[in-house]
């Protein structure tokens, strides 16, 4: 009697069959999860995960198969060969590991190949296990069913692993079912292919493993498989979750929006995207098309493009970088979305800065030149005219220096506002820089139209500008040139308008001046002279001459006044009134004044006799906030005692801001330097000034001394100043004394000191060397008196 396939299948314990199927299903899930973990790992870590997944696959195939064999109850004694039983386990692990390695590391499609190898491993393990069986009977096989079983398990393995590779980390239900089905099919189809001829009493080797004992081994292997698999799975899931959390945190920390898609379907996105599109739109974003929020009509396969991101607040311009990525065999696409609003605003700002002045909002120099060129081209084609007005703000530097740059900026903005308020549709204004503005006016009625506009400009600035509740009186000086009369291009027209502005400043400011051809040469000469003066200062080409100051009573030299002189290589000696004026107009006076002060202190410090020396300060120098510090530094550097230096200031240096000027004078006087009021009586003389500050000397201007005896008013003024000096106990020095009559009058009025050609002309330092370094006592006589022995004798007699 034979036991064939149906009887053999019916001879299985249903409970153990169910247990074998459960082990197969659970083990298959663990195997494919570990396989997915190996796919995500790179380097040496992948080999470890592949070995674990291969070991798990072999263990589950061996355990499920032997549980099913133990479920077989044919009514005959059965035993299992130990070597072949172990070989069955070894074959299952080796072939499963090889198959999964091929599936993990091979190209696309290798998942099916590796899965087929794993299925063959299940078949090899089953038939090796069947070879280990010893029973009371003879075994026979149906080769057709055997081959069918091998094909089916290989197919199930290929489907399971191939699908698992495509699913990546997200192992679903179908792939483990395929693998578990293949394991079960292999056992039951293999058993169906078996026929047994019972031989009761047939000898069974004593070395075989009893089914009960094997059951313990199988149970232990099952428990080991389940516990190890579950522990490994939990550890892997925890590590994966932690990695995902870290990756999510990194993505959320990115300033760029990141969107992960499967094709065009949104799978996930970071917090930046949520902030960009808004919470309501973000809630509906997953599983929707990315092109629903990303508007782009171009080639969507590009990796770099600009689009609009649809948000709750409207469209946002964005830059998009798209890249494909592979995760667990699945191809995904990542879109990096960069908000372009700040960049667009910056580009707009840069474009604005390139064409407009940030302080006043007026077009800048570059924009002005483009506009003027266009207007000239337009008017040239229509035989029209263009007027160019260059506008300079009077007293701006003074406001800037005295009240600070903040007040200066507010003044520039107020000036721009007043100018633009007067312009019509055919006119525009620009700021070239500093306090210089330009106005371009198109039309045929030139220069009359430009004259009317200039008059309105001047009139508008007759009213003070209010800054922080304080009135500031400023004015405008305007230079104008007309196209095509005064220039046929931008460069020439602007140059001639500048010349006209220069002439207007020469004539007293707060006026308009139109260009005329004769300006070109005279102004150009002054500009050349200014350039040459700059070089002369830099190259130390200037000289200092010294004019003696004498005691009126004795004729003794009591000091010197230092005077700058310029011996021009072409023009010869340039009049101080000319080059000093140029220096003050161009701010060269600051460098010139410092050079003169340093040179005088250096030379005076070398004198053998301690004569005091006087140096003039320009009103522009006096507005420097660090002037006392500069004087102190020069005194320290040169070694000149402070009590030998006298600084002369004019009354105009005090009138603009009296309190500030007095504070400056007190700081200078605190150094030990003497301070003299120069040209007293010619400016804004104020008795309150003399009362507020203890000047060390008053100097009567030459213009009054010249008229002594010829004009009653001048004589009276000189007498009054001398009386005032005596009353205030301030020494008075008369400038420009050139005649005996003047000296006699001043001496009769008890004038203490005098200076002028009568006592000596300004001479180079070498010409006073015999005085300042001679062997005679300090009381040397002024050159004009030492040449007149009789006069010197009379003076000595007068003083006893």
Written overview of the protein:
- With 800 residues, this protein is α+β, with helices and mostly antiparallel strands.
- The protein folds into 4 domains: 5-237, no CATH class; 254-345, Beta-Lactamase; 356-515, Reverse transcriptase/Diguanylate cyclase domain (Alpha-Beta Plaits), CATH 3.30.70.270; 546-793, EAL domain (TIM Barrel, Alpha-Beta Barrel), CATH 3.20.20.
- Helices cover 54% and strands 19% of the residues.
- The strands form 6 sheets. An 8-stranded mixed β-barrel has the order 18-19-21-22-23-24-25-26.
- Helix 16 links the parallel strand 16 and strand 17 (512-514).
- The N and C termini lie far apart (174 Å).
- Mean pLDDT is 83; it is low at 784-800.
Class inferred from helices and paired strands = alpha+beta
Strand arrangement in the largest pleated sheet: 18-19-21-22-23-24-25-26
Number of discrete domains:
4
The major sheet is characterized as: 8 strands, mixed, barrel
CATH topology of the largest domain: TIM Barrel
Estimate percent helicity.
Answer: 40-55%
CATH architecture name of the largest domain: Alpha-Beta Barrel
Rg estimate, integer Å = 54 Å
| Counted beta strands | 27
Average pLDDT for all residues: 83
Poorly predicted segments: 784-800
Number of helices: 30
Coarse shape:
elongated
The CATH superfamily title of the largest domain: EAL domain
Which CATH first-tier class of the largest domain would you pick? Alpha Beta
User: What percent of residues are in strands?
Assistant: 15-25%
Kindly report how far apart the N and C termini lie: 174 Å
